[in-house]
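Example record for the data management plan.
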Amino acid sequence: MKKVYAKEEYCVGCRLCEVHCVVAHSKYPNDIIKAFKKDTNRPLPRVIVEEERPVSFALQCRHCDYAYCTKACITGAMRKDPVTGIVTNDEERCVGCWTCILACPFGAIKRDESGHKVASKCDLCSQTALTPACVEHCPNGALLFEERDN
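Corresponding structural encoding:
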């Protein structure tokens, strides 16, 4: 399965991956201005830039082969698609218990309390695009979307 990989040697910590992730998951996925100026319930970025100078890199869900978050989820909201391997969170079923956050070994799931309390995590923009927005808009090629042998 294709996943997002960070090349920390090219990341300058500009956070454009976070910006474009917010836009892609907003009410206005094709308009950055409207996403930031008109969307009053703007989603959290599902990618997080970790900065510890001189190294920075984008962190997002690894869509693990054995996804601990799906095992920990008490409502079945966190699911791994058996065909694509993408781990997604059904926000309608999520009750905001945060057990998935505790179970994730990478710290890639965040609390989104801006509206209905839900877990927020990368879904590889699977509903909207072939290439995740963070990868598509990274100006330095610090994010790759590719399939690798593990």
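Summary line stored alongside the record: Residues 16-24 form the longest helix (9 residues).
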